[in-house]
Write the structure tokens for this entry.
Amino acid sequence: MRKLPLILVSSILMVLAVVIVFKGNADENAYQVCLFSAISGTVTLHGKPLSHVTITRSANYWNKDNHTDSTMTDANGHFHFAAMMVNSRHISRSMNPVIFEKLLIQTQGKEYVGWQTTRGDIQPNIELGRNKPIPELHCELSNKSSIKDVEAGHPVSGVCSW
Amino acid sequence: MPTLTPDQAASAARGIYDILTMHNLLASFNSSLRDNFDLAKPLEFNGKSGFTLIQTTSGFGLATMGKGVAYQHDALIIIRGTSLSVDWVTDAHAGTAVFCGNIVHSGFYKVFRSILPALNQFFQVYHPLRVHVVGHSLGGAVATLVAQWIKQNGKGEPHLYTFGSPRVGFPGFAHLCTAKLQSKNIYRVYHENDPVPMVPIAPFVHLPLPGRAYRQFYQSAGSPINPEAHKMVNYQETVVGKTWASMHRPIMIGLQDYAIEDWLLSSRTVAGHLAYDVLHYSRESISYILRKYELLEGMIIQGGIMNISNNLDVLATAIDAGKKMTEEVKSYVIRLIHKIHAALGLAVNTVKDVTGDMLRWAMQRLEEALFKMVRTAVRGSLSV
């Protein structure tokens, strides 16, 4: 007879725990937004791969909420970033987000804009048109920064090409 | 080239959203615009080249001149709106203002007034032959007022390009613009399932009237109304590579009776599938039923056929007053109530005796469903 309330209480607690865990998971995914798609490429100077070059990626929403991450090129001058996903309720709710994204290449005290554009949506792989992953970039630092047209999209500027 | 292509217009409407990030604005526009308009840098003090930045608390934009043989006599004005509460679209009794002797929406007019000094400055320096005026969403509504102002004040021949623009004014204003700007110079692009062009509700109408509009399908024809369809990125994708000729369709005033009867009697409405036709046809059905009713009772309709809320009131009041209905009219009212319920995904009970309140309730739910989607569609796009 004494055990019954204990079982009752513990089962209520378990149910609660399950609800909390599930709710937590649901919230975690509900406001996921992509601020920058997966991007990778090779940095060269006069055709020679540059290793240990710092690559910094930044993205912001309407000039606010700045997010950055960075990596280094490997021995072959190669770098890779996974998609930059963040949790943001207000960005996910915005129907016309203006997300400014920029990839900086820093080497020997110099800074190059590799890739710069604005994304108007929160899904991955939209920079070059819907569901088009960004191809491997070639970032030749002796090139002049140029503006490249994107069919059905926003122009991309910087030294990198694809 | 006297006219912007759909790609050029879309790139302009999209690029202007970058104006707040204040990086190199040149990189915000496709080469088809960069090569033909002066977008490299803001106009310097006393300078001869550069674009004029329009920046007030409620409106943003830029004005600039074309270059090269093709565009040297052309100006480009791109407008985007900000800081206006979403009430502007969802208020059934939208505030009005008088512009060029006609009634327009007071919210759009307010933004227009705020950018007027900058426009005047621009036209003191430049005297273009043609002026291309572009805008998306609220920016499209303000662009419409700008185009009419340009024409009215002899500042050039305006060409207007809007994407997902809400309705700007009453029929008088639409007729005035159609006569002044001419239908061929008005490029109103809309997605059939974008909720924003469906507001403010009647008596607000689109221009040109009558004339043509440029309809595109986000998803497919007949898709449910979807706030996603309002995104500028989605407009840019649907118009890419298109010509104006391939997109245009005639816009007529009202619907033919047989089309309304067809719709009322058809079982095309899918449960919970709130598509464009439900909104459009249910409003038209009200005035159609009223006309049928009127013929019978000799009633006089106040306010004319464009005024839906008035029509609804007249019809509902007549039903409640027990005015005699033919079986045909009664069946149409029942069909209409059924169809609205179905579209909203509400359970439909068998209706035997209709009341005015049933009709009012159904139409109100329909409006609320639309307004909810409009609010979602413009969320986050107006904030600075």
